[in-house]
Every structure is written in structure tokens, then in C-alpha cells.
Design goal:
It is a single chain. With 276 residues, the protein is of the alpha/beta class. It is 26% helix and 21% strand. A hairpin with a 4-residue loop joins strand 8 and strand 9. The chain is globular.
């Protein structure tokens, strides 16, 4: 299967594209965001990496068809989990938060929580392909991101907000001028997951408090999340405050501990050779 068949995209205007993997039919299917700038272009999250994302972007002319346009293309993972980082190895420039550099450089399929089944792939990307052979390929990040770093695209800037909880290196990218928040898995319109390896509930609560603060200070109008559909500031406020209320209860803490234990055991069994 070609890259042109594997992916599909939708233009949201102003140089912003929403890309998805058509045949990865799972709740884990991540949104891929392509943002075109005047001096630099950015891909935010890269999916599984089963087909070449750069080839798709090029074949569809998403960065324009001017042969004189030579902007660098930076691929940023909002965090290291497999559904977001699997395609990073396809890019020459790769960015991730400092807390998860080693996980990517070592190809640590425990920390990337690699878990893929044949039933999630509606059509195999190549003859004989099987999910049990899938692993996140090691990649050495070229851009080690920290809280407050600014990624300059020329006509717009993205500020790195370190928002741990879902994972230790989870980040959001904030386009302050346009009040856009690329939120990764810090928040999306679904159940927020805090029971994976390297998840941390107290950090997640603090990150959600920051999200509430962004809404209260009118710094976000639209959220472009790691999964599902986009949503606005009111929904962001509701999702963040609901998580805070739920996470602080005793039953929720016990449930999180139980799920975390089970997830750790299952992932170690599924990825026995991972560095962990």
C-alpha cells in the first residue's frame, strides 16, 4: 500500500492540515497536525510510521509546490507513546521533551507503551504484515525541548508547555497569537489516561490546573488534540476541571493504581526486550 492510500488529510485553512491514518481503526489512532510557516514547517505527532508520512506530505503538495521553497521540516512528538512517535524516524529533524529523549533513542517499547493488534489494522500496509512484529524504531532527537521553548515558524510561534501526567514528557504547543493549543494526550474529548507506565496523577492534576488557567486568562480559543475532534475553550475547561475532581477521590486513586499495575505487567510481557 502506498503512502497516498494509507493517509488522508483535511485542510483547516491558514496552512494547517489534519492528517489521519485511514486503515488504523482504533481509539488509539492519533491525529497528525501539519503546520506550514513562512520560515519553518512543523509536523505535530507522526502516527505509527507504517508508511512514509514525508512522502504523503510531498505527494499531496501540502507544503506548496514552489520549487524554490526550502523550509526545514521539524517533526515534534507531543510525547513518546507509539501512536504518536512511530513515524519520527522518517524525519531528519525530530523534537521531543527532554524527559523522553532516552525512550526514543533506545527504542524503548515499554515506555512508548507499544501495543498494537491485527484487528486494529483494517488493511495491511504490506503483504504478510503482522502487528506482533511492530515496534517503535529508535530515533535520536535533534531538538530537545523544555518548558518555555519557542519554535519559530516565521509568521507564527509555538511555545512549549511541559504538561506531565499522561506521560512524564507530555507537552502542549501553544500558538498564543492565534489562541490555538495543540494538546497531544494531555487533554482530548474522551477519558484521560493516567494509569500507564510513567503516568503520574498528581502531575496530571497540576497540568489540568494549568489548562484551566489558560482558559480563565482567555489564552485558548481552540484545542487541536491528539485524538478525536477539535473543541473549544468551554469544553477544555470542563474536561480539565472534571479530571481534577475525579482524580482527587479515593476510589479513583485505587482504580488508577490497579490499572497501572496491570498495564505494566502486560506491556513487559508484550515487549520483553525493551529497555525498562
Amino acid at each position: 500500500m502506498s503512502a497516498a492510500d494509507w493517509y488522508a488529510h483535511k485542510s483547516l485553512g491558514d496552512g494547517l492540515f489534519w492528517i489521519q491514518e485511514r486503515f488504523y481503526q482504533s481509539e488509539n489512532r492519533a491525529n497528525i497536525w501539519l503546520l506550514r510557516g513562512t520560515h519553518q514547517d512543523v509536523v505535530i505527532d507522526t502516527g505509527l510510521g507504517l508508511r512514509s508520512l514525508p512522502d504523503y506530505i510531498d505527494s499531496k503538495g501540502l507544503l506548496g509546490k514552489d520549487p524554490q521553497r526550502k523550509n526545514p521540516l521539524l517533526a515534534i512528538a507531543t510525547h513518546a507513546h507509539f501512536d504518536h512517535s512511530g513515524g519520527l524516524h522518517q524525519f531528519q529533524q525530530v523534537g521531543v521533551h527532554s524527559a523522553e529523549v532516552d525512550a526514543l533513542a533506545n527504542g524503548d517499547n515499554f515506555e512508548t507503551v507499544t501495543w498494537l493488534s491485527d484487528r486494529e489494522i483494517a488493511e495491511a500496509p504490506s503483504p504478510g504484515w503482522r502487528a506482533r512484529h511492530y515496534k517503535v524504531k529508535a530515533v535520536q532527537p535533534t531538538h530537545i525541548l523544555q518548558e518555555g521553548d519557542v519554535i519559530n515558524l516565521g509568521d507564527r510561534q509555538l511555545t512549549v508547555l511541559h504538561m506531565p501526567g499522561h506521560s512524564r514528557g507530555s507537552i502542549c504547543l501553544h500558538d498564543r497569537d492565534n489562541k490555538l493549543l495543540f494538546s497531544g494526550d494531555v487533554v482530548y474529548d474522551g477519558a484521560m489516561i493516567d494509569w500507564l507506565p510513567y503516568s503520574h496523577v498528581s502531575d496530571y492534576i497540576s497540568s489540568c490546573e494549568r489548562l484551566v488557567g489558560l482558559v480563565d486568562s482567555e489564552q485558548v480559543d481552540q484545542v487541536l488534540p491528539g485524538h478525536y475532534n477539535t473543541f473549544g475553550a468551554k469544553r477544555l475547561h470542563r474536561l480539565a476541571t472534571s479530571y481534577i475532581s475525579r482524580a482527587e477521590t479515593c476510589p479513583a486513586k485505587f482504580s488508577t493504581f490497579a490499572w497501572s499495575t496491570l498495564a505494566g505487567v502486560a506491556l513487559r510481557a508484550f515487549n520483553p526486550r525493551s529497555a525498562c
